Amino acid sequence: MPERSKADLLLALADDELLLGWRNSEWTGIAPFLEEDVAFSSIAQNEIGHARALYELVARELGTDADALAFDRSLDEYRSAPLVELRRLEWARTIARHWLYETADAIRLEALKASDDSEIAGIAAKIDREEVYHRIHAEMWVDRLLASEEARPRLDEALEELWPYALGVLDDDLRPELVRRVEAKLGREMPHVEPVPRGHHEAELAELLDEMTMVRRSAPAGARW
Amino acid sequence: MIYEVFRREREGAAMQHAGSIAAPDGRFAEVYAREQYGRRGESEALWLVPRESIDEIAEFVDEFDLKYRRVDGYSIKERLKEARQRAGTLEG
What we know:
- The complex is a heterodimer of chains A (225) and B (92).
- Chain A is mostly helical.
- Helices cover 68% and strands 0% of the residues of chain A.
């Protein structure tokens, strides 16, 4: 893994989890059926919970607080991967993004769990214990959509579209493992494409940040929750 | 498919019906049951049963008034009173 500061490394992970949590929560109330609504909303809450734990860790490092990191930075300061910034309110695309993200995230967490820094290794292990269930959820949906004549082409199209974004979640050295896992699952070769890396932001992010920070910005100074 | 969910609150306790969930298959049912009946720490174990595997019995015939078979038994108050009257030991 390339040398990066601890705060930078953890912020990238925290921003991914926060934004994906927000994106997934957009299905609350309108998921395909009630049980899925509950499950997907719960996954969204978990991701935001992971983000909070990570922001708290970074906040101690930087001498600030978790809310300030989550909500008070400017758009350019977010370290998120463009994959989680996209707004794709269509179920096949949501499942494609969910599965690609969880697959990439598993690889990233495995690397972080092996970190020499015990704080990083510890929080990665803690997050991973919950992510196990997100992966089970993502895998069962991918299998189900792949098995359906109607759903398979829609999922495939979404996977093609999101593939460069999925590669952008990981650093260079971890990408080959993502290619291996995705190809093994789908039983076909993925296109060789340029990753859409961190550092560039999707247009949808501005809109999301505006919505996400609305309450915080409108609260009078010193308001406590 | 509808799955009936049973949950056990703590080790050693009896399974109790918790509710039901709709899921396309057992894999989905497991995920959904975990979310709905397990994620708040309210259950120590869950049972999932496809509703179609449940045999229901909902008709019980008791034509000859065999009340003594019932768990609540049958009242002997009146008969006791009569017996006491016959024996002349009825008080009051």
